[in-house]
Amino acid sequence: MTSPVDALLFLTIGFAGGFLGSILGIGGGSLMTPLLLAVGYDITVAVPASLLAIVGTSLGGLYVYEERGLIDYDLAITAEAVTVPGSLTGVLIASAGFKEVMKLTLAVILLLISVDMLRPERQDNNGEGFGYNAHPVIGYASMYLAGMISALAGIGGGVLKVPVLHKLMGVDIKKAVATSKLMVGLTGAAGALGYYLGGLLNSCLALSLLAGSLAGGLAGARTGVKLSGRLIKILFSVFLLAMSVLVIVRG
Question: Is the distance from CB of 169 to CB of 139 less than 8 angstroms?
C-alpha cells in the first residue's frame, strides 16, 4: 500500500513532469522516469507509470494550446497512425526483459536530441498540414521510431516528436510543442494500456503521478505560451542533457 509520504512524492514528481512537459511539448516522462529511478524504483516499474502520467500532462496542456489555435490536428492524427504501432512494438521489446537496453536507449536519445536542438537551422515554416519541408516517408519513419522509443524508455516520445516537427518538417517551435502535446498523450495511453494488459502497471504509483501531471500540465502550458521560441529551444536542450546525465549516473 502506498504511504502518504510516497503519494506526496509521486504527486510532486508528476507535477514537475507535467509542468516542464507542457512548456517543452513533451510528455514529461523524460523527467518522471529518471526521478523515479533516482528514488529507488526499478526501470520496469517507472516506465509504465510514467506513460500513464503522460496522459495527464497532455490533457492539461491541450486545454491552453487549443485556446490559442496552436494545435495542428490533421498533422497529429496522421503521424499518430504510425506512432501508436511503434509504441506497441516498444512494449513487446520491453516485455522481453531488456532492462539495460531500456536505460541505454533513454540516455542516448536524450543526449543526441539535446545537442541537435541547439544547431543552427533554416527559417521556420508555418505551413499547414503534414510534410511541411520534408518527404512524408521521413516523417512517418521518424514518428514510428519515436513511438517505439517512448514505450522502451517511459517517455511520451515528445523528445523526438518536437525535433522532428520543428527541425525536419519546418513547423514553428510553438506549433510543434502544441501539436506534440496531443500526440504524446495518445502515444503514452497506447503504451500504458499495453503494460496494463501485460500486468506490469503499478496502479497506485501511476494514478498518483497522473494527478500531479494533470495539474502540472495545465500550469506549464499557461507559462509556455508566454515564452519566446528561442528560450523554449534552449530550455529543451538543457533539460534533456541533464536527464541524460542522470540516467547514465544512476544506470
Answer: yes
Cβ–Cβ contacts within 10 Å for residue 236, how many?
Answer: 26
| Contact assessment for residue 10 and residue 209, using Cβ atoms and an 8 Å cutoff | yes
Asked if 131 and 73 count as a contact pair (C-beta separation under 8 A), the reply is no
Q: Please, are residues 21 and 232 in contact by the beta-carbon 8 Å criterion?
A: no
| DSSP letters for 27-46 | -SHHHHHHHHHHTT--HHHH
Span 21-37, average pLDDT: 83
Query: How many independent structural domains does the chain possess?
Result: 1
Provide the whole-model pTM: 0.72
**CA angle, residues 175, 168, 159, in degrees to nearest 5:** 65
Q: How far apart are CA 203 and CA 219, in angstroms?
A: 24
Q: Which three cell numbers stand for residue 105?
A: 536507449
Residues 73-102 pLDDT 10s: 988 888 888 888 887 888 787 777 666 666
Regarding predicted confidence, which is higher, 127 or 103? 103
Cα 54 to Cα 60: distance, rounded to the nearest angstrom:
10
Q: Please report which residue ranges of the chain form alpha helices under DSSP H.
A: 4-24, 29-38, 43-67, 73-95, 99-116, 136-153, 158-163, 173-197, 203-224, 229-250
Three cell numbers written together for 82: 504510425
Q: Are 27 and 191 in contact (CB under 8 A)?
A: no
Task: Supply the range of the domain harboring residue 109.
Answer: 4-250
Contacts of residue 135, Cβ cutoff 8 Å, sequence gap at least 6: none
